[in-house]
Design brief:
This protein folds into two domains: 112 residues, Urease, subunit C, domain 1 (Roll); 314 residues, Metal-dependent hydrolases (TIM Barrel, Alpha-Beta Barrel). Helices cover 25% and strands 26% of the residues. It has 13 helices and 23 strands. Strands 4, 5, 6, 8, 9, 20, 21 and 22 form an eight-stranded mixed beta sheet that branches. The N terminus and C terminus are likely disordered. The structure holds zinc ion.
Length: 480
């Protein structure tokens, strides 16, 4: 069933409901044509990795050719020289907080979707810890409509598993699933009760939706604001022990043995957590895990001087934990990267360490930070990094079945072009996000998206967002 929405001036805009995949999504078809010439095209899903030309027309990838000059531009089309750059599937971030509805002073769906595009992401999945909570089909639809109106990145929705994320009563997950929720989570809070957790896993298994857990036993973190250790003791701040994460992962994996739900550990931070997930995966359990840029690059020492920009949930840990996370990425225990983009107003972060909110923004500098932690360090190569940012999160969210996370002929043209040699200084004042809470401000980094296409729309042009969407006349390329 296709339900037509308001027409887009550069083509047609429709809501598409796929009864096969149970995913409802917004698709804009544009008539523009682009030739991305001479880049290193990496498609981890198929193993393609070669210098090639990519032709985009009418919103889809028309052709990929390894023969130089086979595809050529004719009048009206846009030629983009990609020599020396990566041409990859649009990046996907499965864990962001867009704050709308309810905290639009921190971020809106439109500013968050713009921040995503600026960072090279064509799709994000937003968390339900808004006000009101995203725990009803109508709220899922509200987010979808706002995202469609922003005409930037695609925004997929994770619905809450329990009403108000209170952990007491199941939310209508089936109904949210019907209107397109791609995952369920009470992120921001853990489902603390084992009994409730078992029910949630059973429902998610029946819907074939992933459950994403914020792993934090609340009875172990009361008053905790940073990693529990020597530094928290010296600063006189409440400690948050690693075991608070580990006992939940262990418990959930045991609970899930009977349900075989797809279970995902959000923002994993500890050595012990990596070990538990590694063993469970070896045992054939359906468990995946993600790591965030700050947990790969910063330790608890960043909290020295009561720096609230380093206050995050779960907290920054130790060098040993960072090494374990990187080992987990190298050996395939951790298959997904996620920013946990968490905007907060400057006045909120200016409170003292105990009162300031948890979280930091991440979308606009994430790629360079992942590259620094994982590729520049020699841990993994570009194709694996791209997999962790494209096909792996697409599979997690079940959106690979509608063509996301891949570059292939005939699928929606969500494509990111990256200059891996571009050096730049992180300056949150220049960000599209409404918030500035970035602990990486001032870092000199390498690697940046230069061009981004979402459904064939050129939404990031030479590293800049156009003020209004660019519309060019219908054009064609001659395929020789
Ligand atoms: Zn969380």
């Amino acid at each position: 069933m296709n339900e037509t929405a308001e027409p887009d001036q550069s083509g047609s805009a429709v809501f598409i409901w796929s009864s096969r995949t149970k995913i409802r999504y917004y698709e804009i078809t544009v008539n523009n044509t682009f030739l991305l010439r001479g880049g290193r095209v990496i498609d981890p899903a198929s193993g393609f990795d070669a210098t090639a030309d990519v032709l985009i027309s009418a919103g889809v990838i028309c052709e990929i050719s390894k023969k130089p000059g086979k595809l050529s531009a004719s009048a009206g089309g846009t030629l983009i020289e990609c020599e020396g750059r990566l041409v990859v599937p649009g990046l996907i971030d499965p864990h962001v907080h867009l704050r709308e509805p309810g905290a639009e002073h921190k971020e809106t769906i439109a500013t968050g979707a713009a921040a995503a595009v600026a960072g090279g992401f064509t799709s994000v999945c937003c968390m339900p810890n808004t006000t009101p909570t995203i725990d009803l089909p109508s709220t899922v639809e509200f987010v979808q409509m706002r995202a469609a109106a922003s005409r930037k990145a695609r925004v997929f929705v994770a619905g809450a598993a329990t009403v108000g994320r209170a952990g007491e009563q199941l939310a209508p997950m089936g109904a949210m699933s019907q209107v397109g929720a791609v995952a369920f989570t009470d992120d921001g809070d853990c489902i603390a009760s084992a009994g409730m957790m078992g029910k949630v896993l059973a429902v998610c298994a029946s819907l074939d939706k992933v459950f994403m857990q914020h792993c934090q036993d609340p009875t172990l973190t009361m008053g905790g604001v940073m990693n529990s250790g020597v530094i928290s003791a010296r600063l006189g701040l409440g400690g948050w022990p690693a075991v608070a994460e580990e006992v939940i992962i262990e418990r959930d994996i045991r609970l899930n043995r009977g349900h075989r739900c797809r279970y995902h550990v959000q923002h994993m931070t500890t050595c012990g957590g990596v070990d538990i997930v590694r063993r469970a995966r070896a045992d054939g359990q359906r468990v995946t895990a993600e790591a965030s840029p700050h947990h790969l690059l910063l330790t608890e020492e960043a909290c020295n001087n009561y720096n609230t920009q380093a206050k995050v949930n779960p907290p920054l840990r130790t060098d040993e934990d960072i090494r374990a996370l990187i080992e987990g990425i190298v050996d395939g225990t951790i298959t997904v990267l996620a920013t946990d983009h968490a905007p907060h107003a400057s006045a909120e972060k200016a409170r003292d360490f105990t009162a300031a909110p948890f979280g930091m923004i991440g979308l606009e500098c994430a790629f360079a930070l992942y590259a620094k932690a994982l590729v520049e360090s020699g841990a993994i190569d570009w194709p694996r990094l791209i997999a962790l940012l494209t096909i792996e999160p697409a599979r997690l969210l079940g959106i690979d079945s509608i063509g996301h996370g891949q570059i292939a002929q005939g699928i929606p043209a969500d494509v990111t072009v990256i200059d891996t040699n571009a050096t730049w200084k992180i300056d949150s004042e220049t960000f599209q996000s409404k918030s500035r809470n970035c602990p990486f401000d001032g870092w000199q980094v390498r690697g940046r998206a230069t061009d981004v296409f979402v459904a064939g729309r050129h939404v990031l042009i030479g590293g800049a967002l156009p003020a209004t969407p660019t519309i060019t006349a219908h054009a064609s390329f001659n395929v020789l």
